[in-house]
Structures are given as structure tokens and as C-alpha cells.
Design brief:
Layout: H1 5-15, H2 29-34, H3 38-46, E1 53-56, H4 62-68, E2 74-78, H5 81-94, E3 99-103, H6 109-113, E4 118-124, H7 133-141, E5 144-155, H8 161-171, H9 178-189, H10 195-206, H11 216-225, E6 228-234, H12 242-248, H13 259-272, E7 279-286
Parallel strand pairs: 1-2, 1-4, 2-3, 4-5
Antiparallel strand pairs: 5-7, 6-7
The chain binds S-adenosylmethionine.
Length: about 290
């Protein structure tokens, strides 16, 4: 893989695992629960306790570890050894017996074929770093049982424009200015007390060797091509705040957005998702 996009991305995540955290923050399972970010809690509440889950591109494993607390079969896969090492350290420390971690390259058909099938496939912030998101999407669908549900988080083509401007500013006018760096990263993660996490985020957002951006229409085309029923997106057009989303939950069946809705929402996301770097999640169900 040396010299390829995959090789560069793998090297990058071996040097700077993501989302990363100071392992000492998690002394017990309760702390994993308390420190879970709100979206992880909403996911946890929206997925049945008896469902099997695979978190594709789990990175340092915080999400898969958290979801495994209440479940019997949760997997986290990734192709970065350093990230998996950290995820394994967390698993060992907290004795997360229902969490399975495995090294898998999602563009490798043979490695994918060997894995079992799951009720839920989660793939957050991964496909846009693969160099071939459509193939990677097709591959991870193979991990889904019939009627199983999938959530994919991607950078939006329009929503990411402000972050691209921040990257440009950070690398030109404000070169090496730590205060500006801290300000930009605080926009995204709120606080920078956990230095490992702040460093992980900075590298992931501002120093990445490869990312692509996507539109809702493109994801709908993938869904159509590979027989996936559209369910819902986050951000969701129905709500103005996260509390409403928590109550409403995820994986609800909604009407597929028309071209007008898509154009309106994506333009709106330039402003409303600029702090998250234009990140959005689409959910579907395998037919
Ligand atoms: C931005 S991180 C996301 C981590 C985690 N899903 C999250 O949301 O915090 C992207 C992850 O995808 C993994 N990844 C990228 N390309 C991959 C591939 N082809 N196969 C497996 N993992 C891959 C990277 O190693 C990295 O851990």
C-alpha cells in the first residue's frame, strides 16, 4: 500500500490515532458512560440492546467500547495498528468482554468476506478518507444482515467550505499560531483540556493527507445502486437542537429528500455544520 492513498492514510493514523484520549480518563466503565459524547448516547438509545453492531473504522475505539457496555456482540474494525492498540488497551483496562477488535482494511474484499454479519453497521468519518468511498461503501454493506441498518458519516461538499477556509487561514496567515489553532479546535470540540484528544482532532481536521467531500444526492445514488432504503439524516431538518433529536432518536423512516430539500439543506449546512466541519450522517436499511 506504500505510496497509495490507503498507505498514506494508514501511516497518518498510525502516527496520530483518532479520536484519541488520555487513557487515564477512563478508570472504570462508569467513566466511559459519563464521558460519552451526546451523539453516542443517542445512538446507544436508538439501537436495541440485543442488536449486534460493527463500528467500521473504529479508530481508538471510544464509540465501540461505549456501545459494548450494554450489548453482547459489538465489533470495532480498523486498519491502523496504533489506533487498535489504544482501543485494545481500553478494552483490557475496563474488561470489555463483549467488544471484539480486529485489523481489517475495508477496501480489501477478502478481509471483508471473512467477517460475520451484523444488525447495525456504523461507519463514522471513514469513507471520505479511503480514496474509493463507493467501493468501501459497497464492501461494508456486505457486513449487514438483510433488513440491517447502516449509518455513514461523511464530509458534506458544501458544509465543509468554512473548514476549508479555516485550513487555508491556519496554514497561511496564522501559520504556527497556537492561539489560533486552539481557537479553531475549540470551535469543533468545545474544550481542549484532554491534550491527546485536541491533538488528534487538529491532525484529523487540519493535517490530513486525504479527504473527499460528498453530497446527499451522491449518497442517495449509492443507496439506490446497492438496494438500501433511505431512513434519515443528522442534522435532521425537523429539529433546531440536539435535545429534540435525542427524544426523536435515530434510524427513523422519513421521506427521501427531493432535489429542492437537498439543495436547501446543504446550503444551510454551510452555516449550521461549520463547527463540525460539515459532517453529516445518513442512515439506511438494507432491503
Ligand atoms: C476520522 S477517523 C474516525 C474514527 C471513528 N470512527 C470516529 O468517528 O471517531 C477514521 C478512521 O478510519 C480508519 N480507516 C481509514 N481508511 C480505512 C480503511 N481502508 N480500512 C479500515 N479503516 C480505515 C482510520 O484508520 C481511522 O481510524
Amino acid at each position: 500500500m506504500k505510496g497509495t492513498i490507503g498507505g498514506k492514510v494508514q501511516k497518518f493514523y498510525n502516527e496520530t490515532p483518532f479520536p484519541d484520549y488520555e487513557l487515564e480518563r477512563f478508570e472504570n466503565k462508569e467513566q466511559l458512560r459519563i464521558l460519552a459524547y451526546p451523539f453516542a448516547e443517542t445512538l446507544d438509545r436508538s439501537i436495541p440492546k440485543d442488536a449486534s453492531i460493527i463500528d467500521v473504522g473504529t479508530g481508538t475505539g471510544q464509540l465501540s467500547a461505549f456501545l459494548s457496555l450494554k450489548r453482547k456482540n459489538v465489533w470495532g474494525i480498523d486498519f491502523s495498528d496504533s489506533s487498535l492498540k489504544k482501543a485494545n488497551a481500553l478494552k483490557e483496562k475496563l474488561k470489555l468482554d463483549t467488544l471484539t477488535l480486529k485489523k481489517v482494511n475495508i477496501l480489501n474484499d477478502n478481509e471483508i468476506e471473512k467477517l460475520p454479519k451484523f444488525d447495525y453497521v456504523l461507519c463514522m468519518g471513514v469513507l471520505h478518507h479511503t480514496g474509493n468511498p463507493k467501493k468501501a461503501f459497497r464492501n461494508i454493506l456486505k457486513l449487514l444482515k438483510p433488513n440491517g441498518k447502516i449509518a455513514i458519516g461523511l464530509y458534506n461538499k458544501y458544509g465543509r467550505i468554512p473548514l476549508k477556509i479555516r485550513i487555508f487561514l491556519a496554514k497561511t496567515i496564522f501559520r504556527n499560531n497556537q492561539k489560533v489553532k486552539d481557537y479553531f479546535i475549540r470551535l469543533q470540540i468545545g474544550e481542549i483540556k484532554d491534550k491527546e484528544r485536541a491533538r488528534g482532532w487538529w491532525n484529523d481536521q487540519y493535517e490530513h493527507p486525504h479527504e473527499s467531500t460528498h453530497t446527499i444526492g451522491e449518497v442517495l445514488d449509492w443507496f439506490k445502486k446497492y438496494n438500501v432504503k433511505y431512513l434519515q439524516t443528522v442534522p435532521n431538518t425537523k429539529f433546531s437542537n440536539g435535545t429534540d433529536l435525542e427524544c426523536y432518536g435515530l434510524f427513523n423512516k422519513e421521506r427521501k429528500p427531493t432535489i429542492v430539500h437537498r439543495a436547501y439543506n446543504q446550503l444551510k449546512w454551510i452555516y449550521t455544520t461549520h463547527k463540525e466541519g460539515g459532517y453529516w450522517i445518513t442512515m439506511g436499511e438494507r432491503k
